[in-house]
Amino acid sequence: MKRSKKLVSLMLAAATASMALAGCGSKTADTTATTAGGGAATEAQTEAGTKEAAAEFSYPMASGDKLTYWCELTSTVAANYANLGDTPFAKEWAKDTGVDVEYQHPPVGQTKQQFGLIMADGNLPDMMEYSWTADYPGGPEKAIKDGVIISLNDVFQKYCPNILKYLEENPDIDKMIKTDEGHYYVFPFIRGDEKLCNTIGLMLREDWLKELNMDVPTTIDEWHDVLTAFKEKKGATAPYTFEYTNPQYLDSNPFLFAFNSSRGFYLGDDGKAHFGAVEEGYKQYLTTMAQWYKEGLIDPDLASMGSDQVAAKMTNGQSGASMGQAGSRMGTWISAAVKTTPEYMLKAAPSPSLEKGARPEFGWIELPFSGRASVAITTSCKDVERAARLLDFAYGEAGHMMFNFGVEGESYTMENGYPTYTDLIMKNPDGLPVSQSMAAWFRGCYNGPLVQDVRYLEQYYTMDSQKETPEVWGAHNGKKHIMLPVTPTSDESKEFSTIMNEINTYRDEMTLKFIFGTESLDNFDTYVTNIKNMNLEEALDIENAALDRYNSR
Amino acid sequence: MEKKLGVYLNMFLSYLGILAIPILAGGVIYWLALGVTKSQTDKMNDNLLTMVQRELDYKVEEVIKVTNSVAMNSKVEELASVKGELSPENRLMMYYLYQDLSKNNLSEKFVDDIFVYFNRLRAVCSIKGNMSIEMYYDLYCDNSEYRIQEFEKYLDAPHFWDTLNLVRCNGENKLIFTMSDINSVMGGPRNFTAGVSMNLTALKKTMESMLWDKRMFLLIINSKNQVIAQTGEVPEKLSLDYDSLPAGNYVDRKLLDEPYSTFVRESENLEWKYVMLIPQSIIEKNARDIQKYAMVGLFACIFMGSAFSYYMTKKNYNPIRSLLEIFMGQGGRKPSKGENEYQWLRQQSEQFFKEHTDTRLLLADSQKSLRLYTLLKVLEYPYDMEHMKETLENYNIKVGLGFNAVIIFDVGQRKADADRELAGEYALRRFILKNIFEELVLDYFHIETVEIGERLAAVVGLPADGKEYQEKLIELVETLMQMTEDKFEFAVTALVGDIHEGLEGIHLSYMEACEIGEYVELLNTDLIVYCDVKNVQKKYRYSIDTEQRIINAIKTGHADVAKEAIGGAFDENIIDGISIDVCRCLIYDMMGTLLKGADEGGYHNFSSEFNFSKDLSARLPVGELKRRFGKLVDQICDKIESLQREEENDNKLSKKVQAYIQENYQDPDLNISMVGQSFGMTPAYLSTIYKKQTQESLLDYINKFRLAEAERLLREDHSVVEVAQMVGFRDSGSFIRVFKKKMGFTPGQLKKKN
């Protein structure tokens, strides 16, 4: 594209020497269209050129400068390695691509502060893995305009045949990973299968259900009965508990979805954005919860619950139901509890509905592209091609296998065309938990710039109750209502976040008060009025405008 | 061999001398290094401990601040007063307290929790969440030392900046700072205890990273002599007493078996002491290592040095020795024992080169002599080129080919005053002459010069025969003569030979030059050119007959005949018009003729009595010359006439004397006196006149006559005695003696023969 542009510029310059440069730029497009006989032809030409170039290229690259790569070190890696570069994964990646990478990690829990410091300092690493979509103030387009990261359109065209191919095959994802202005800005983390998006859901003590001769609850009423039974018959002091302090769980709260509501924005049937926390459904949810709290069905200490306490309560019988991931929560709890309670077993419960048998309209599902753990190339990078080819590797066939399964013969073997993890991963000789041995060998088990493979999850889930979770938790129409990853313009974004910060804080505070019963639900209208006074409409307008732009991408 | 050993010994000793310097330096360096190491280590350790102290103090201070702020939190007080069940409001407040605690935001990895324990509620509010004390214990404080009851009891008790060291079941070590509410400390009811738990594992890791040796260790003790934290392998028997540990750094020998460098710092916030113990031996070991390396280095120096110097000696001495052998093999003076071989070698070499130079000079000298000799030979004898070519080339003689002319120079020698003192002066003149002439000629022609006796011969090589070359040559000679005259004030005679071709030509030219030498006197000039003289001779007629005729005329006193002949000779030469040179020749020849005539006529003093140069000159007209010669002839003839007369008188006297002697020879008294008396003359005068006329002494004549008579008589059979008397001897003895002296035998012997 660039080449042809240059060429035409030259031609023009020769034809009309006195023409102003600005005029030149605007006319270039016209001339390109007319002289080349249509943009499509140029496109095709360029594409052919790219493919040709790709055919010439092969990994590993010739050795060159070391590149720097900034990313959060996930806890399953940090347990055994101080730096991602020490892992077999990083070594294999360097070997396959021929690129030496120096990894830099922010201290645990300080990713945002550290990111802020780096931005202030201006001395950027070559590549940065971050939630550019949500966490860069002003959004990714602003990041490009600020000169922090580079637009990847040209880079993809020139050096990234793999990701181009993937995006061609997955236009919905192509839409997600662009800005409204059509700029690519990251090498994205993409969940490659819908199953991988249904990882959080409700679960409860199967052994108790059996003992009490009860079925897995599917409606709010059934849940009420089960929890009451747990409290009364099993002596649970906090029948239902979950990590209230983890916003992810608040967003994926199935009990709220049961009332066809959401605590934030959702996509209505009208195709517009709605703010759930001011709607009738939210009030119904709060009413129910307040009732349950009052009845002692919900953990009285819910508000400050962290994973440690939830785990303790779920394993020591203080609680009988919770929600969370099938791996890090359900699996961990089962393994921990069976040591003292052999009959202990958890079972996934579907997203509940109000009426029995009805397929819930709302439910939790993650977007294939959440914006998390996606890698941008910064303006400080001197060798863009090297960085781009390093990152593009993961989206190719070999890279996909390496990123999801590690090294063939070591971390996995191909059995009937199915990449099967070896005992090194599944029964680690050093006694590492599966999550840690996996994290050492590949990134597919947590996140990163790659397309996650569902075959990882199929093997990661070892227990039957885990294996059925994608099916159970995915049984709803939530996909229709999940808010798309829209991005407000950089101008709107400041205002938007100011408004939403205020609204969210107030909403969270009031929600607790309503549930705890210290605030009467009679005041819900006042609450709604207050939120509206906080310029909710304006925020909704911004969100809807962004949605329109997204749809027209 | 003995000699060689001596050399090695000398070298080794000097080497040892040099070695003493590094050995001494090594010692000094070791002691300095030990001191420096000790003080540096002390300083380093001191800094280290200060760092640990500052870091921990800072953290503790932070903890204290946090704990204070927690204790002062109004929510805490409110919650502490709650009795029985917690209302939802209480729980909400507890949640807000949880948020408050979380806001302390102690990101430090050393602080892992901040909590408040409410005694009455048996509940804990912490950053980790709100929960019952049991759960808190289970999740965060489970340990084998304190059971839950004991832990609760501990928390129930009043505390003021107390610390509890817990090792959790999972191995995590934490230190819990506790502070009960003020009221309880003051004796009021205990309501809550605020606490901060510090991660000692992380702290220890930091402390450990500061230790630089396995054997050193670092510990923190409090005033109750409890060890708060320790790193390194602390010996079990070590027991520290808080009060008896003075702050500072010193060496403690009592704490443990060996002396320890002890560093003690006091905490600024708490009654804690930071203690670092390092065995002295570690520090000394470092210094000893230095010593060890220094010693190893020194020995390595010694061995390497020895080997190297041995090698160098061999390498350096062997060439000297072989040189020595060469010189000693040539004979001459052998180096005496103990003498420095190098000096000897130096002397020998100097001598050698001096001799070499001398020889070369000598050679050059003889080369020069040979060259001159060759030139001489070429001049003296005719050689053909083929014979001499090689020799000429050898001596780099450039003349010989082509045409050559020889010039002979004479510096004042013609005056024949060969004064010894002037010889040096003449040699100098010749030298000057040689140099000037060579310089003059070399601009045009080749030249070789050679000294022949007192003369200087110059051979000039010319490209061809010809008038112009001849003229050029003469011009050069004249220039030379002018120069010597003007600048050096001496006159030079030059004889120029003709130009001849080839090597033989040199000889020819030389001979010509020699030949014309005679004309210098005659022609009264300094420059004689052969060809001029040669031209004169062609017209010059002065035959030997003419000369003889003139001589005879003069001898016989016929002056008129002589005059006529001289006139004829002049006229003969003048016929073609006389040149000045011919005239000179004729004058010269004529003078010779006159001299010869005078001499033959008995007039021997003519040359000394007559001054030719005054009266005769070629510049005079011929007539005048004839007249002057005629006058000379007259004078000579007159003189000869008078001389002949005088001679005739004298001869009559000697005849009379002889007759007198023949008559009186038998008289034994006959002697010179008797003869004189009889002629009326003194015996001496008579004797002189007689000798003048007869060239014989009178006495000899007397004896001769007597002996001749005696011989005749002896043959006539007269006895010796008779004969003696008969010929006038007084006794026979003197007769025999005189006879034998004159005849060579005795008269008796003569008689026997007969």
From TrEMBL, chain A:
Pfam families: SBP_bac_1. It comes from the Bacteria. PROSITE patterns: PROKAR_LIPOPROTEIN. Keywords: Cell membrane, Lipoprotein, Membrane, Palmitate, Signal. Residues 1-22 form the signal peptide. SUPFAM superfamilies: Periplasmic binding protein-like II. This is ABC transporter substrate-binding protein. It comes from Lacrimispora celerecrescens.
UniProtKB/TrEMBL annotation, chain B:
The keyword Cell division does not apply. InterPro entries: Homeodomain-like_sf, HTH_AraC, HTH_AraC-typ_CS, Tscrpt_reg_AraC-type_HTH. This is HTH araC/xylS-type domain-containing protein. Keywords: DNA-binding, Membrane, Transcription, Transcription regulation, Transmembrane, Transmembrane helix. It comes from the Bacteria. Residues 655-753 form the HTH araC/xylS-type domain. One of its GO terms (molecular function) is sequence-specific DNA binding. It holds the Pfam family HTH_18. The chain crosses the membrane at residues 12-34, 293-312. It comes from Lacrimispora celerecrescens.
